Amino acid sequence: NQDPGALENYIEHFQSEMSSAGKKEAYQIENLPIKEKISRHILLRDRGHLKEDIDSFIKENAGADHQEKALELLNTVLLPAMQEIGNQFASGELILPFVLQSAEIMRTATDHLETYLEKTSGSTKGRFVLATVYGDVHDIGKNLIKTIVSNNGYSVVDLGKQVPAEMIIDKAIEIG
Fold first, then answer.
1. What is the CA 78 to chain-centroid distance, rounded?
2. Could you tell me the pTM of the whole model?
3. Exposure winner among 4, 100, 110, 125, fewest CB in 10 A?
């Protein structure tokens, strides 16, 4: 339970080898528009070439603002892909380990997108205390909110995951 790659190892152990249909699908993905390719990274839990595809999308139009392109990608591709994962989980089409794997791919994507988002220095619009409450091991939603609000002029105090409610309240009172 200490290996950071435990989830991937577990899934790999139980996942069958890629069939010829899977290989055909992988080939077809390479020929998709860039937005669809990035969405498929989340939906198919595929980390390969994710950062390169994000870079391609951001730099697709030489004159385009990188921050605007990054926010567009987050709002129109990545968040809807995670919504689809949530819908598949809710309907029983997807089991929890696969949801977690998609969430890890999403975290990689948002971490990489942050390199394109300008940090607002100086004054802030306000402060947020974010945490994932004790008993909830998933922090992808918190991390998405952190990315969005911190890049819109707010300062964020991230307490992490599995945080007792009292600690969250104490920190909120402390920063006032």
1. 7
2. 0.66
3. 4
